[in-house]
Design a protein that fits this description.
With 350 residues, the protein is α/β, with parallel strands linked by helices. The protein has eleven helices and eight strands. It has two domains: 175 residues, 3-Layer(aba) Sandwich (Rossmann fold), CATH 3.40.50.1400; 141 residues, Rossmann fold. Helices cover 42% and strands 13% of the residues. A four-stranded parallel β-sheet has the order 2-1-3-4, sandwiched between helices. β7, α10 and β8 form a beta-alpha-beta unit. The radius of gyration is 20 Å and the shape is globular. It is found in: Cytoplasm. Its main location: cytoplasm.
Length: 350
Amino acid sequence: MAGVGYDALLWLSFGGPEGPDDVMPFLENVTRGRGVPRERLLEVAEHYQHFGGVSPINRLNRDAMAAVEKQLAAAGVDLPVHFGNRNWHPMVEDTLASLTSEGAKRILVFPTSAYGGYSACRQYDEDIERARAAVGSDAPEMVKLRQFFDHPLFISAVADGVRAAHASLGDAPGIRTVFTAHSVPSSADAASGPPSEGGRRYSRQIAEAARLVAAEAGIDSYDVVWQSRSGPPQVPWLEPDIVDHIDALHESGVAGVVVSPIGFVSDHLEVIWDLDNEAAERAAEHGMAFARAATAGSDPRFAELVVELVREHTHGVKPRKLSPFPVAGCTVNGAPCAVGCCEPAKRPAR
C-alpha cells in the first residue's frame, strides 16, 4: 500500500553542528535577528566545543528516522522519510527543493516538538512557509502533524524513563522527581495558544504532561522547573531554573533528585550540558543523589507514535490523547493553527 495521498514524510528539526568549524555559524543562524551579544555566543560555543563541536541531535534524529521508516514499512505505508533542519544542514529549504525536483506534490511534516507555543510549534510553521517560498510555485503542499505531548505512547515512554532513573538510585527514600522544559520569555508563554484560550498554552501543556507522566509512574509529588534560559537578565523568563531549584531542594533537606527533561524529545546538547553537567555537578556539590531520566526519542514507542500520527492522515486513525487540551498544531503550508495563535513576542527596544 502506498503513502495514501502523500509522497514523503519530512522530519523537521532544529539542527546542530557536526564539527568544530560548524559551531559559530550554527549559533549565528539560531540567533539571527535576536540581538544576542557575541560574548554570549562564544560562551555557548564553549559548551559545544566541550563535546568536540558536535551536537548529538542530528545523529539522534537520523536514528529515529530509521526506526520510523522501518515501522512505516511494517505497517504497509510506503512513505520515504527525509531530513530537514531550521538552523543547520541539511537545511529544510534544500530538502524541500530536492523533494520538489523528484516530483513530490504533497508531503507530511513531523516537527520534533511535542508542544504548542511560538518556539515549540509556530516557528515550525514559519520554517514550512519559508521553505515553500524558497522553492516557489511548484512547492508541494505541506501538512504538519499535530502536537503529541499527551499521546499515551509519549507519556508511557517518558514514565518508564522516570521509573528507570529512580531504580538506578536504588529506590532510595527522599528522592524528589523534577520535570524540566526549555524556558521561554514569560511574554512568549503568555502569547502561546489562541487568544481565546487566555495564553500560557506552552507552560500549561508542560504541566499537564508532567501530571500524566507522574500518574503513570506512580509519583504523588513532583516539581516542574525550567532550563536553558538565554535571554538578557532584564527580560522575565519562566522560572525557577533547574540549578537554582536544586539549591532550594538541598536547603529543604531533600536527599536527591531524578530529573526528567519532559520538554525535549531527544538528548539535545542543552539536555546534556544543563542537566548531565551543570545540574548533576550542583547536586554533587550538595552531596545529593542525582539521576537523569531518558528522553522519549530513543524509545521504540516514539517511532510507533510518529507512525500513528502519520496514519491519522493516511488511514483516518482516530487521534489518541490523554488530556482535555484540544488537538492542535496540524497546519497546512505554514498557516498558524488559529488567528493570533502563538504570535511571536515583540522584542523590547534596545
